[in-house]
Amino acid sequence: MTGPARCQMMVLVLAGALLACSKRAPEPTATKAAVAAKPALKTTEINDQPGAFDPNDPKHGTRKLMNLDAPVYVDGAQVAVLRYGDLVVAPARVLEGGTPSYRVYDYLASIGIAPESVKSVHFHGNNDRIGSIEGAELLKDKARFTFTFSSQTTGGAVQRWDTEGLKNEFVVHEIRKVSVFVKKAPVAIHPQKRCHLDAKGECTDAIPYAESAPVHGTRVYVDGKMVGFVKRRQIQDVVLMGKTDAGDHKYNVAKFIESLGVKSDGIKAVELVAGDDVIGRASPEQWGRLAPEFFFTLPKHNHGKVRVHVPVELQANDDKPAERDALVSSVLVYKSTTPAQRDLVAISEDTDLSVQLASNAGGGEGEGHTQ
User: What is the pTM of this model?
Assistant: First the structure.
């Protein structure tokens, strides 16, 4: 290669090197500066926060019906299940898109807890993490503390309040269990682990002061307050009323409710609920007329969930009217209150499935966050 040619080649190589340097990725900004620039989380739109439950995420498809029965405890005794189907309280307001929003204050009152007596409410989320509201905080700003359900009128309960400035600023997102402390001292929440600790110092899913397992049988409420539930070995003989053609024991619905201390007089309405759907409704006249022959059976391996033989006139209108047997998760009795305006849903395999899966444990990846 001649001298001029060699010089020309060197110029081209240097030009290429300079061009490559000009395309080098910019140096990353300092982490500290990036953190400082991040705005504080103040929104109450909890579903938009990191780790929040997304009902449209395909990976949640199989768990949408699972683990929706969120037990509610007062000083270790279960008093209710937090889910849309069991509610009698009216929503405080309806959000954009039609999602009803409920106040924690109103909900506690509706299940028989005087909010003024509450020391603290602990909301157990995924992975045993806990958010909480102090009694004084609840009374100071009743409208602040609200919850919705992940799919408007079904799905798990979702925290909707801003936690900034509270004693506990942790956000649980999905509410799996609720512990209310009234007479007993609230259990400490570890400030870093955000959970209750066991004797070994590890996070525990145990409910403080609880002496029995969560209720899995069909629940019975009177005006929003749970008065009992079905447990095969505790059903009194007076409730028995013969056998079905298949040989299953028949139990009288009205007599079972009476065995829980609920007098039959003064009943305004009775609703049969499967998951979050009302599948049967009786007026006072229908209840009085049908009660003597209104029965349920107890399928095996359903943990006390009953199968009610539902007369045609109590069901949703159908092209093929017929008496049907349906799994029922709760029975709502109204004496001093009236039912909410909810449409009847036709009995189907889907309504049965919602009852069967409601108490099943569902995994939860999201851990919540601190505001």
Answer: 0.80
Cα distances (Å, whole numbers) of residue 194 to 122, 129, 187, 300, 365: 11, 5, 12, 39, 16
CA end-to-end span of the chain: 69
Query: What is the 3-state secondary structure of 200-226?
Result: CCCECCCCCCCCCCCCCCCEEEECCEE
What is the model's pLDDT at position 321? 84
Give DSSP secondary structure letters for 231-251: -GGG--GGGEEEE-TTS-EEE
| Cα gap 296→53, rounded to integer Å | 36
Contact of 354 with 277, CB cutoff 8 Å: yes
For 67: left if phi > 0, alpha if psi spans -120 to 50, otherwise beta; the answer is: left
For 34-67, the pLDDT digits (tens) are 333 333 333 344 444 433 444 454 434 445 667 7
Q: Of 157, 303, 288, which Cα lies nearest the Cα of 232?
A: 303
- How many helices, marked H, and strands, marked E, lie in the chain? 7, 22
Q: Average pLDDT in the 280-301 region?
A: 94
pLDDT in tens, 112-141: 999 999 999 999 999 999 999 999 999 999
- Residue 172 in this model has a pLDDT that exceeds 80: yes
To which residue do tokens 């937090």 refer?
Answer: 82
The size of the chain, in residues, is 371
Residue from 188, 98, 210, 111 nearest 148 by CA: 98
Tokens 């340097």, residue located: 21
The tokens 């909890």 sit on which residue? 46
How many other β-carbons are positioned within 10 Å of the β-carbon of residue 23?
6
Q: Check the CA dihedral 208-133-193-213 and report its sign.
A: positive
| Residue range 65-118, pLDDT digits in tens | 677 899 999 999 999 999 999 999 999 999 988 999 999 999 999 999 999 999
Per the listing, tokens 């005794």 go with 77
Distances in whole angstroms, Cα of residue 298 to Cα of each of 215, 346, 360 = 16, 21, 19
From residue 6, give the alpha-carbon distance in Å to each of 11, 13, 196: 9, 11, 76
Tell me how far apart the alpha carbons of residues 352 and 28 are, in angstroms, rounded to a whole number: 55
Amino acid type, 54: D
Element (H, E) at 169: none
